[in-house]
Amino acid sequence: QVQLQQWGAGLLKPSETLSLTCAVSGGSFTGYYWSWIRQPPGKGLEWIGEIHHSGSTNYNPSLKSRVTMSVDSSKHQFSLKLSSVTAADTAVYYCARVEGWFDPWGQGTLVTVSS
Amino acid sequence: EIVLTQSPGTLSLSPGERATLSCRASQSASSSSLAWYQQKPGQAPRLLIYGASSRATGIPDRFSGSGSGTDFTLTITRLEPEDFAVYYCQQYGGSPLTFGGGTKVEIK
User: Which residues make beta-bridge pairs with B49?
Assistant: First the structure.
């Protein structure tokens, strides 16, 4: 079955760039969109954006100016960069496969922004 | 943007009882482009329902989804101890993809 394993820096200072990567194993990478979703502590879920294995992207307008997603199809990996982070970007970040709905999900990475 | 409003915010029930969770969309983008997730503390959300009423692989049949257009419902017929969690709806009929604010099902 498809599994997603994600990693990246967990502690950032304001104005730095968040960088996370998600690796896909156990299933097809091509033909799908792959997403990033975040969840501030104690709050709900927010879709950040998605990237196709071909490199086509769709971003949430609320974050579009700061988000860059990339894909390395040869490694079955996709990545998220979020620039100029502030405390409001503190959240658990998840990667997930998109079929309209999200399934499966990565294990989540807590990213804390603090000076 | 399609805004999803979930109600109630918290549902206090006992094991064995029936849970009915609501998700209302601010507009209809696609008649059945709605999913439900369960999330337990410290875990990633788990897909329960897609297409408004199709159960995901491995989901017990006590979970069922219904509705179309702007009004959707998740029903848990008999609550098991492991069902106490937070439930989110998500729409994929319009962009950006959006989630509801969640309903917490807690033990009474």
Answer: B36, B55
Give the containing element (helix H, strand E) for A7. Answer: strand A3-8
CA angle B30, A101, A37 (to 5 degrees): 120
pLDDT over 90 at B100, yes or no: yes
Asked if A47 and A59 count as a contact pair (C-beta separation under 8 A), the reply is no
* Interface residues on A facing B, Cβ-Cβ cutoff 8 A: 35, 44-47, 50, 58, 60-62, 94, 99-108
Q: Are B98 and B34 within 8 A, CB to CB?
A: no
* % pLDDT > 70, chain A: 100
Residue B45 contacts A where some CB pair is shorter than 8 Å? yes
Token pair 């990478």 is at which residue? A29
Task: Specify the pLDDT at position A59.
Answer: 98
Provide mean pLDDT across the span B10-39.
94
